[in-house]
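Reposting from the mailing list since nobody answered there.

I have sequence plus structure tokens for a pair of proteins and want to know whether others read the tokens the same way I do. The first protein:
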Amino acid sequence: MFKRILNPVWAFDMEWAPDPRGGRLLHNLPDSASDEEVMATMWAKNGATPENPEPFLKPALCRIVSIAAVTRQSRKEGGPPQLHLISLPKDPADPAQNDERHVVGHFLKALGERRPMLVGYNSIAADLRALVQRGIILGLSAPEFCKRPDKPWEGADYFAKMSDWNVDLKDAITPGWGGGSPSLNEMATLSGIPGKMEVDGQQVPRMWLDKRLPEIVAYNEFDAVTTYLLFLRVSYFGGHFTDAQYQAEQEEVRRLLEREADAGRVHLRRYLAEWDRLKARVA
């Protein structure tokens, strides 16, 4: 369990799909091969079966297509925290923003500048590993993100084990006592928090091939909000919030979702409706 809540907090999630460019390089496929053909070869080379035709691929073999995060900034003067929902690409219709170098590079640069408490679910084994590996493959430079203090108490360190700057909620709730780790969907749904709704991660590659990036970004935002709400619940369990504070923190999330839905992210209304439905069932 993490020892404290730092400022700011970024609860994030990422979506990725097999990288056709990498597949052509690894398997010596011609440039004329379609992205779908290349991805099919990548799955076949990684153990595809009739029962599992699209097996999990190593993060290095996949391109990151979307990153979303709920950011929490405590106010120095007191009062409720400032919450924002950020996502990359900001405009899925803009080809320049869809470029993986833009998505990964922009996020790593922001992490290096802001140095937030980074919170994810299975993030140490998956998301953070993908960020580092893809950043290297893309030829990016992220010195501020990679910077490590001489002593643990002297600043953010995203590479130290058991660091409060890099919190993996899956590890926090499964503290080394055997297997049986729940998925984000299982942990969230059982807690009255929306888990998987219309989409799950296994559908993302096909959605990307079909150029349904706006839907991927919307799904990614759902998972980022879910990760943040689970972070609040784990923080409450760990004694970082009183009953009243925990309730107030959840209300701030509701206000964030309502504000963003009114501003054009209408898919967040579905999230609010599902949240209300689940809360009523677990009450």
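The second protein, same order (residues first, tokens after):
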Amino acid sequence: MWNAQSGRCLTELAQRSNPAHSSENCEFSPDGSKVLPLAGKTACVWDAKTGRLLFEIPGLKEDLHTARFSPDGKSLLTISQKAARLWDSVTGQPLLEPLLGAGYQASFSYDSGRLLTFGSQNTALVWDLHTGIALTSPLCHERSLNCAQFSPDGQRMLTASEDESACVWDAYTEKPLTEPLKLGGGIRCAQFSPDGKWVVAALPQDRG
């Protein structure tokens, strides 16, 4: 880690996974007190000030696609090929049974109570993070999804796909709120504006 103003190196987090796996994902907790790097089958939580290892997520047997903190910082999420798992960010203990068939990527609702997963079988799915139960049937596209997220107020969802469309959904009834937003190319990413009134989407540069 470095000081963002001086560029001085503050501490180095020792590699605890197979050296063949470089760090694939790294982020701070929302309050800046912890750091979560990811490499291969290993996800560790470190103290951001001292560089001390706080805990390592136990029992992971497959490579992870992503690891991230919830917006409230109370939990962290890991996603592998087989399942998404939620862990206590202080103790490292599991909070739910694994969410099977969740997909490869995920986005938290801003209140940290729901999870929107995507990347499996061209679908997205909403989960209740208090119970581990799926709240919706699959939200379907014709081709793979590249991104999905909740609106800032948590009332809507946005999905974007290689099928050249983005869709806005009601987060509770799972009904589409607009016609598919067609952009003439596979959509790499899409996002709500901070006030939730607008959607921006990006297409590959070589689409045409």
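Reply #1 (J.P.):
I read it the same way you do. DSSP finds no helices and 18 strands in the chain.
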